[in-house]
Amino acid sequence: MDAFFASVELLDYPELRGQAVVVGGRNVHLPQVQADGSRRFARLRDYVGRGVVTTSTYEARAFGVFSGMGLMKSAALAPEAILLPANFDAYRDYSRRFKAAVASIAPQIEDRGIDEIYIDLSDFAEDSLSLARRIKQAVFAATGLSCSIGITPNKLLAKICSDLDKPDGITILRQDEVASRIWPLPAKKINGIGPKATEKLARLGIRSIGELAATPVDFLFRHFGQSNGAWMHRVAHGIDERAIVTASEPKSISRESTFARDLHARQDRAELSEIFTGLCLRVADDLKRKGYASRTIGIKLRYSDFHAVTRDITLPVGISTGAEIRKAAGECLKRVPLAQKIRLLGVRAGGLVPLNALLQPVAAVQAELPF
DNA sequence: TCTGGGGTCCTAGGACCC
DNA sequence: TCTGGGGTCCTAGGACCC
Fold first, then answer.
1. pLDDT, tens digit, for every residue of A10-20?
2. Degrees (nearest 5) of the Cα angle A355, A361, A367?
3. What is the total count of domains within chain A?
């Protein structure tokens, strides 16, 4: 989906179309309706706090304002940009709508988060361009939103191509076009090559995907390890055999919070304790709602210098109540240094055990056994 | 003007077992 | 006396993605 959160907001505020708009922040107030019926919006320059950009419109991106950037920094680049608070319930609703619209045409869908999917179109005889147009029309009819599509032989190339003609684009690529159309792109366009790998590649004199493809695989082994080096070599040649994964179970559920100001374990004990318990209760609530117990409870702290540590503990049996989680997380907390001030606290439940599996009748379990 | 929140996957060392 | 080769589980950290 194109600039998904911002585009959903523009459905409510059509007068902002064409403007630099940013979604994000905390305690950002909703637009105020004036006496004349017009709406007064918050501006980026008025923001104070630790929030980041969640999504920016293409007009805001032209100022250099992108997802993940601190709002204070963004304000220096685009002080007049409109700032809207995030409304995740609405985004989840539109997410369900666009996915249902696609599923009505092609049901083999892999969920890649709130605004992205892979679709297996292998069995469609229809030509790619008309298929892409049909999917885009279905998405627009269901949401009023535009998306960008890449149709290619595999997921790796589809991900790259979906980004080549944003917004509202269609890119179709055959395997024999990898050299001409993919090799000129920077290596970081590959899903899985992030900031660290990009930096390391650059130090080795490798910037484009083509340069990566031309690098002897032995050289990649030496610098990135056997597994990672082999993977880099394959993806640079446009090779990706991964199937579409249409169903999956969650591996972990977590909640975390960055404080408005850094807190100290002693001076701010009561406040921290309340936040900590609150996080445990939210995790418990999430577990209950989704129907899981957890065998591994973990915590995360981020100190004022931004350095983060984690601790976890594995229990003999799965737990799910707030009190149990609070107790296990409390044990983890004892093993962490608390001299420095803290800016973030998180609680995580891993080792998830589906509760419906526990409630499964014995006969049903036996039916799955080979004998 | 310092950097959100929710995830997944990988690595690596140590404990422990056969 | 100086020592194997598998394997799994647990823990911590880090890269990366949406």
1. 999 999 999 99
2. 115
3. 4
